[in-house]
Amino acid sequence: MKRLVIATRRSRLALWQAEHVKKSLERLHRDLTVELLALSTRGDELMDRRLDQAGGKGLFVRELETAMAEGRADLAVHSIKDVPADLPPGFALAAITAREDPRDVFLSKKFKFLREMPKGATVGTSSLRRSSQITERFPRLEIRLLRGNVDTRIAKLDRGEYDAIVLAAAGLTRLGLDARITARLEVDEMLPAPGQGALGIECLAGRAEVAALLAPLADRATTVCVRAERAVSRALGGSCTLPLAAYAEYLEKSLRLRALVASSDGRRVIRCDLEGDTADPQGLGERAADDLRRQGAEEILGI
Fold first, then answer.
1. In terms of domains, do 237 and 282 share one?
2. CATH code, 253
3. How do residues 274-286 score in pLDDT, each as one tens digit?
4. CA angle at residue 149 from 233 to 67, to 5 degrees?
5. Are residues 28 and 143 in the same domain?
6. Quick one: 112 and 142 in the same domain?
7. pTM of the shown model
8. Quick check: helix, strand or coil at residue 20?
């Protein structure tokens, strides 16, 4: 192949991610021309509702998948945390790249830490996973809906619409906005979303020639970890309507996987912490889901 087209969302972060993959492909394949096809997705257009109320994570990927199915694009670059656990028939994740910092971060112009915030102070997030974990630890705080791209969310903080906001570290780092981070939230206090910090490259399952070009971009350790995390999500329903978190670490001889599910009000949170074989991340993820079920996950999640 001499030419590839990458479908991407129009946000500054999405364009950075697509451009990053474009440059990596062109370095690897000197005779290859890579172009970007920027598209607006339904998820970008619905700014007044949480994603779980508007239709879920698929809102960020459907238009990109349509472009691939119609032959207008050869691949799409996603933040893996925005990709549903089950892809539509005929699509595949051809590569998962090396992970950036998977943690969430706290941004505020008034406070240094969540624990310093007084009763009634407002924290902006659109994530049930984040809001339930914050409410579990700090029920005195008021969680308020925060939608929009990274720049829009920070602008709302700067205008004083929120006392603090919580975002993913990876997005800020990729956009050169590390200086805006007030505090990084360790995974013990805010467990990340499955796949957080990693990029996934999707293509049609039958495009072997595209998959071959993408294969060198895959990072083995990140791929194994993300597969375990996404297996938890898949086993429990795979939707962003679930307040679910999962984070795997590639150890020297094993894989450690932490996961949790929570009620949306943060009153019930159940956790598991398991180790398994790096050769079977899917099995480890399914074991974690079983453990959470035994503790009452299905009752909490209503599944």
1. yes
2. 3.30.160.40
3. 999 999 999 999 9
4. 70
5. no
6. yes
7. 0.91
8. helix
pLDDT at res. 58? 62
Give the residues across from 77 on adjacent strands: 201
Taking the C-alpha atoms of residue 187 and residue 104, their distance in angstroms, rounded to an integer, is 8
Give residue 66's pLDDT band: very low, low, confident or very high (50, 70, 90). very high
Give dist(CA 92, CA 86) in Å, integer: 10
Per the domain annotation, does 264 fall within a domain?
Answer: yes
Helix 12-28 to helix 150-158 angle (10° resolution) is 140
Q: What gap in Å lies between CA 93 and CA 77, rounded to an integer?
A: 10
Interior angle at CA 164, CA 50 and CA 116, nearest 5: 130
The C-alpha atoms of residue 163 and residue 111 are separated, in whole angstroms, by 8
Write the burial class of residue 3 (CB in 10 Å: 0-12 exposed, 13-18 middle, 19+ buried): exposed
Mean pLDDT of all residues belonging to the chain: 92
For residue 98, is it left (φ>0), alpha (ψ between -120 and 50) or beta? beta
Q: For residue 282, what pLDDT is reported? A: 97
- pLDDT value for 42: 62
Query: Which residues are part of the catalytic machinery?
Result: 82
Q: Determine the structural domain holding residue 81 and report its residue range.
A: 3-97+198-218
Domain assignment present for 128: yes
Q: Is residue 270 part of a domain?
A: yes
Note whether residue 120 is domain-resident.
yes
Q: Tens of pLDDT along 150-165?
A: 999 999 999 999 999 9
Write b or e for each residue in 110-126: b if 16 or more Cβ atoms lie within 10 A of its Cβ, otherwise e: ebeebeebeeebbbbbb
Q: Are residues 7 and 70 in the same domain?
A: yes
Q: CA distances (Å), 207 to each of 74, 210, 267, in order? A: 8, 5, 46
Under DSSP, the state recorded for 206 is T
